[in-house]
Amino acid sequence: MFRDRSDAAHLLVQRLKGCPFHDPVVLAIPRGGVVIGAVLARELGAELDVVLSRKLRAPFQPELAVGAVAEDGQVYLESRAREALELTDEYLSEEQRYQLGEIERRKRLFRAVRSRAPVMDRSVIVTDDGIATGSTMIAALQTVKAQKPHELIVAVPVAPFGRLADIRRRCDDVVCVLTPFDFWAIGEFYEDFPQIEDAEVVSLLSESMASRRTEDVASPTILRR
Description:
Elements: H1 5-16, E1 25-28, H2 32-44, E2 47-50, E3 53-58, E4 61-70, E5 75-77, H3 79-85, H4 89-111, E6 123-127, H5 135-145, E7 151-158, H6 161-168, E8 173-178, H7 198-218
Parallel strand pairs: 1-2, 1-6, 6-7, 7-8
Antiparallel strand pairs: 3-4, 4-5
Helix pairs in contact: 1-2, 2-7
């Protein structure tokens, strides 16, 4: 059990420190993942950015993910969920349009603070405050992998044991603190698990950008002739 997202992030950092990352960047899935990502980026000396991925909701069960869509339009669908719930193409198209609209809204908001970080040939750590079905993480990994990172690492505080094998097939490594067999919801593993608002995400991105600018001024690059 974690006290809160900050506590979970610091425990996660201990499993990542010492890894030989190459020009690392932390990509956090908003909103809760950005609280985790801000700690990882600060402690690992990495850049912080977001990767926008939204779950596709089951009809009449908005908490149940039947898949996810990422900011580049790539879609991941849970085939078993589609069959079990008899989802129509019309429903999925409508839900996809809705979530892409929300992604676009968040993109305008967050990209006003910082432009998209390049990931090609870099160590990319994708994080969230936890994994449930894995849909939003898989959609995020699809879009990041297409950008040809040096390596792709998933780092989360908690994920159900049964979902990690599928995640591992889609990245180079998975780092996770808790892997319970019995899993109902991410929030059950936190004592304090408040809703994170857009304003906090903007603040964390701004703070990270300001911190990196300060570090760049304090340690200027020496150009050799």
